[in-house]
Amino acid sequence: MSSANQQGADLPIPGPRHVAIIMDGNGRWAKRQGKLRIFGHKAGVKSVRRAVSFAANHHLDALTLYAFSSENWNRPAQEVTALMELFVRALDSEVKSLHKHNVRLRVIGDTSRFSARLQERIRRSEALTAGNDGLTLNIAANYGGRWDIIQGMRTLAQQVQAGELQPDQITEEGLSELVCLHEQAPVDLVIRTGGEHRISNFLLWQIAYAELYFTDVLWPDFDEHVFEGALNAFAHRERRFGGTTPIGADAS
């Protein structure tokens, strides 16, 4: 087990249970190779495979990957089409291996905009791995944090309209139960590759108290050593959750 997951005198908090990654830099990586952007996306699939293996080997509860945001539809049509096809192929080629290694696959986001072919691949992949109890791999596809919160609020509004809920009964806890990933461990750590220092509408509700880790490494170059570095950085953070005493410290 990684030292980042051990709780000792030199590590004030235990390792994260749930890591989320904004996978950025595929296009720039491809440009440096003199290739089309889709070449970088294809190379990024290998990094996904490495990240999933690392997360499983380090006994994380969940790994959430930002694969396609709701804003990515604004990219050139040719690139979007190629990304959708790559998504289909990745599901076909990877899901059996995920199932073999006891990984449960979840796809979060508004999948209704995807083709019927892709939606069917998603349903089959989720069904195949539904009974697995190892790592949960969440793929955020056509996902946006604002969309996530809005769809939760719509449900609450419908409950109010139906007389099932009073406006003054709307609580933070109630909305938390309606956003994506509510049944999983809270997100502890967000990693963003590619050198940008922003959240890009990713899990806005879920990462309110998550630690943030930014690296200049482009996603196709993300490997076990970079992941380990992020976990080591997390292990030396002081997580207070709005309080004054770091998690893991003696509050007496």
Automatic annotation (TrEMBL):
GO terms for molecular function: ditrans,polycis-undecaprenyl-diphosphate synthase [(2E,6E)-farnesyl-diphosphate specific] activity; magnesium ion binding. CDD domains: Cis_IPPS. GO terms for cellular component: cytosol. Its cofactor is Mg(2+). Pfam families: Prenyltransf. Mg(2+) binds at residues 24, 197, 211. One of its GO terms (biological process) is regulation of cell shape. Substrate binds at residues 25-29, 37, 41, 69-71, 73, 75, 192, 198-200. InterPro entries: UPP_synth-like, UPP_synth-like_CS, UPP_synth-like_sf. It comes from the Bacteria. Keywords: Cell shape, Cell wall biogenesis/degradation, Magnesium, Metal-binding, Peptidoglycan synthesis, Transferase. The active site is at residues 24, 72. It catalyses: 8 isopentenyl diphosphate + (2E,6E)-farnesyl diphosphate = di-trans,octa-cis-undecaprenyl diphosphate + 8 diphosphate. Binds 2 magnesium ions per subunit. Its EC number is 2.5.1.31. Homodimer. Belongs to the UPP synthase family. Catalyzes the sequential condensation of isopentenyl diphosphate (IPP) with (2E,6E)-farnesyl diphosphate (E,E-FPP) to yield (2Z,6Z,10Z,14Z,18Z,22Z,26Z,30Z,34E,38E)-undecaprenyl diphosphate (di-trans,octa-cis-UPP). UPP is the precursor of glycosyl carrier lipid in the biosynthesis of bacterial cell wall polysaccharide components such as peptidoglycan and lipopolysaccharide. PANTHER family: DEHYDRODOLICHYL DIPHOSPHATE SYNTHASE 2 (PTHR10291:SF0), DEHYDRODOLICHYL DIPHOSPHATE SYNTHASE FAMILY MEMBER (PTHR10291). NCBIfam families: PRK10240.1, uppS. This is Ditrans,polycis-undecaprenyl-diphosphate synthase ((2E,6E)-farnesyl-diphosphate specific). The gene is uppS.
